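Task 17 of the worksheet. Students: predict the tertiary structure of the chain below and write it out as structure tokens. Keep your answer in the requested format; marks are given for formatting as well as content.
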Amino acid sequence: MRYLLLIFIAALFCRVDAQEIINGSYDFQTDPEKKYTLYIPSGYDATVPSKVIVGLHPWNTSKWDSESWAEELSEIAEANNCIVICPDGGSDGQIDDDIDTAFTTFLIDEMMGQYNLDASKMYLVGFSWGGKTVYTYGLNHVERFAGFMPMGAAVEQSEVVNFASQAKDQYFYIIHGSQDSPNVRFTPLVNLLEDNMACVETNLLNGVGHTIEFDNQFNILNEGLTWLMNATPCNTVHTVDQLAVQKIGLKRSVISGSDFLEIDADVPMPWVIYDLQGSTLMSGKDLRISQQLAAGAYIIQIADQAGIRFVVQ
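Model answer:
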């Protein structure tokens, strides 16, 4: 028994020792030594496709680069058995320069060839300038990622609005400090995503400013990543009766303020329209609904089915 225990202990220490930070570089475009960092979790198995966190570091070259950001993300990566891929923003520290966004795409493709990565379970995570780039780079590459986690994003709505339509059906878990200009950097972005039919969950941290070093950091980040990994579609239309031939939904989910909202059904049925806070705004039975709703996102519940989100522009 003692011999078996020693074998178990030795195997355990070998597994822990398998955690690894890898620093490397490529001769890329105008940079002969474009740097990157990887974190390989102890549970990585080359025969099993690995989940991936692509990490985008903040703008503060005295503290942050690809290595320090990979280390910052290593705890949640280890807990969820994810490989971390972190490109480096170079001498100016801005991870959204053209060379940096091109390098991020290049680096993901390179690592796909070197490791067994699950392309369907890749998550884009960033703080501050990196959080801004989660929006700007992420929304221009939605086909690459299963979810997005911007944290304390140093961003304004105007920097995202031109490609916000790409957010439809994409998953966002947004972490932000209540003392970090939320009226500029948080609420307008949440509204923009929801208006464009994204699936959004938020955590506005009470009393927290512009920092990633907040209390209970691991649990907060892990909760966000777990939500992304297990998120279910938010814009799915369910039928009143799963055995019925007819499916009940809306003819259009995006309308203007003067348009009728039309239920796609053959017979009248009861409906209720709610705002996103759950307050009742309208109700009735007509299939063609005359509405004067302000621009924004709403929910309509038809009969007993799950609510359907629609947008008034």
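Marker's comment: Helices lie at 2-17, 66-79, 98-114, 129-139, 182-185, 187-195, 217-230. Confidence is low (pLDDT under 50) at residues 1-17, 238-246.
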